[in-house]
Amino acid sequence: MPPVLLVTLLTTASCDDGTDPGSTDTLERWALSEVPTIVIGGADEREDYLLHQVVGATRLADGRVVVANEGTLQLRYYDPEGEHLYDAGGQGEGPGEFESLSGIVRLPGDSVLVDSWLGLTRFGPDGRYASSIPYDLPPYYGECRWSVEGGQHPLADGSIVAVALVYAGIFGGRRCPIPSESQPPAVIGRFIPTTGVFDTIAELPGTEESYRDDAYAYPKTVVFAVGDDRIYLGQTGSDTILAMSVTGDTVATLLAPFEPVPVPADAKVSGSTRLNWTYPDHYPRYARLAAAPRERVWVMAYPTLKEPIRYSELMSPTTFRRLEDGGAKWRVVDRDGLPIAEVRTPEGFFLLEVGDDHVLGVHKDEFHRESVQLYRLIR
Q1: Are the C-beta atoms of residues 8 and 250 closer than 8 Å to each other?
Q2: CATH code for the domain of 360
């Protein structure tokens, strides 16, 4: 589908049949266990449990939990009870070593694939280094495009879903094209490191950028989640979510499961007087997407914060802010776009993975100590 039509789908879809996507009348109430069944880190100050800048975590089929800890540039392996087993990786340029960590994906057979600035690294089910593929991820600086923070996701086949924003201005002596809208366009594509091919999946309105003294209080931005067979793409100010194949075919157009929420008048005077804040009439429809089994997607309601916020405070596990309103509200949408359930995650919890019977994420307490926590999902 041509990218221009994707913009239309993301901005003009409506409930023609009169169905309210935000109705709670038929939603099931799912819940998480009162306490996490696994807690790794937090107040535990033993060396093997100290976590800092967790960028990802996954639960393996045998119950082990693997944590990608950017602070030490390591993968840390824990048993099903959360006891430390061993570490992999570390800082360096050799096989199985890292200069950065961006994300982690579980592969069939309990291997894991790690994304870093230098390439993809695979570790076997025993945590031993198996292989690596170097890459130079496009779009690159010479095209005046920057990768979105957290905007890349390795796939099981070794390719990468990447999101990049096209910026305006001058960088390194190059004059970038000035976008006609306040939102520089975003390019979403699939990069194949072995061939260097970048296949564009979609082009969407990107993040509302702040320039000089002008700033957006609740900036709209592109969000995405990758499932087994689908890529879910959204623009947080839109009322739709696109379900697409990795080749760029639109599989379904899902309605955002939340109604618009007005920004209250007292929120519009809470920002710093040093900046010219632009406040929308309504908060963006949603803040994040998370893929779930059986081609479902979890959609997070945009928090009704009264002070301005950076989009990375909602989207990035390393910079996310604690949610003070009792946690984040999510609605679960099935493959046909029907909202089927509502669930709330705890305060200070950033969701990383949804399973059939669990959710996994990173938590920050009042002292900003990080822990990886696993909750049982009760349906």
Answers
A1: no
A2: 2.120.10.30
Task: Look up residue 84 and give its amino acid.
Answer: H
E strands in 90-180? 103-106, 112-116, 119-123, 129-134, 145-154, 160-166, 169-171, 174-176
According to the 3-state scheme, what is the secondary structure of 238-277? CCEEEEECCCCCEEEEEECCCCCCECCHHHHHCCCCCCEE
The structural domain count of the chain equals 1
CA distance 297 to 291: 5
The token pair that represents 137 in the structure block: 């991820």
CB 22 within 8 A of CB 259: yes
**CA 1 to the chain's CA centroid:** 24
Residue 324 belongs to what domain range?
Answer: 3-15+24-378
**Per-residue pLDDT in tens (0 to 9) along the chain, 379 residues:** 344 335 444 554 444 444 455 556 789 999 999 999 999 999 999 999 999 999 999 999 999 999 999 999 999 999 999 999 999 999 998 999 999 998 899 998 999 999 988 789 999 999 999 999 888 766 554 556 666 666 788 888 888 888 877 665 544 555 565 554 566 778 888 888 888 888 888 888 888 877 667 788 999 988 999 998 899 999 999 999 999 988 788 889 999 999 999 999 988 875 556 778 889 999 999 999 999 999 999 999 999 988 888 888 998 999 898 766 679 999 999 999 999 999 999 999 999 999 999 999 999 998 999 999 999 999 9
The pTM assigned to this predicted structure is: 0.89
Place of tokens 């879910």: 232
Specify the DSSP class assigned to residue 92: S
Cβ-contact 244, 336 below 8 angstroms = no
Q: Which tokens belong to 105?
A: 């994906």
| Total H helices, total E strands in the chain | 2, 30
> How far is the C-alpha of 274 from the C-alpha of 15, rounded, in Å?
41
Angstrom distance (rounded) from CA 205 to CA 222:
7
Helix (H) / strand (E) element for 11: namely helix 3-12
| Beta pairing, strands 214-216 & 197-205 | unpaired
